[in-house]
Amino acid sequence: MGKVYEGGVPLVEVERSGFVEGGHRGSVIVLDAAGNPVASAGDVTGPIFARSSNKPMQAIGMLRAGLRLADPADLALVAASHYGEDFHIARVRALLRSGGLTEAALRCPPDLPLDDAAKIASGGTPQRVYMNCSGKHSGMLLTCRAAGWAVEDYFQPDHPLQQRLNETIEEFAGESAAAMGVDGCGAPVLALSLTGLATAFRRLAEGVPGSLERSVADAMRAYPELVSGTNREDAQLMRAVPGLVCKVGAEGVWAAAVPGKGAVAIKIDDGAARARGPIMITALRRLGIPADVPTLAEPTLLGGGRPVGALHPLW
User: Which domain of life is it from (predicted)?
Assistant: First the structure.
């Protein structure tokens, strides 16, 4: 058996009314612009499933395999974990139509939108197009059409598309995947170290003009609300920090990079999304990157509808 993720250290405390009622453990790696580690905590060499943080590299792999999109906004959606707002769904449907496809071709599971208002507006009926990975799956389908590959089994690990995407992820991470699993959307997911994930994002952010990685990074920077949602973590951070590109993943994963500065990768052991923000902001500041996003730096806890505490970084 290969190396396993050994778990993290206390990273965030949960304070309510001046009393520490809990906390979150995890791991974090900070790389400088040259790719050298400058700070870390926990296990940064053991493999974790990077989940949707792999999507930008998958988008690069699709472009390498022949995907061509006229609108950079569509490329941002291919790299997204969207929240199912109206503008997300309209763009996914338009993407499918551009390839002569319908929603029935999607193999991500039916779901409800992640956005609360969109969830209510949906009437409670799950649809594949609402699933947060439907942009990625639409891109996969269009890539198969462009490459002349079968579309029926595009999500299977032995499909040539998935093999190309996995090769791209490993190339950018600079390491071989320790394991392959099935992501929540049904497509393959690779296990990488946090160091490998940060390395991949540093290479993504440093893409030279005209490169495929630069096109993906620029699309994500230009359309952060498509990468996530109107006021979600990725959108908030990319709006706040010029040049930054970032992508969250399920189970407490988040990765980000700024060209000429460095990269960060985070894993919260219990999967709590709320604990990612304080550590991301702290890590960016260690790279000398001002990231003024109070809602991420110290998320507020409510009591009786008013602020009574917050999450605080321990690292």
Answer: Bacteria
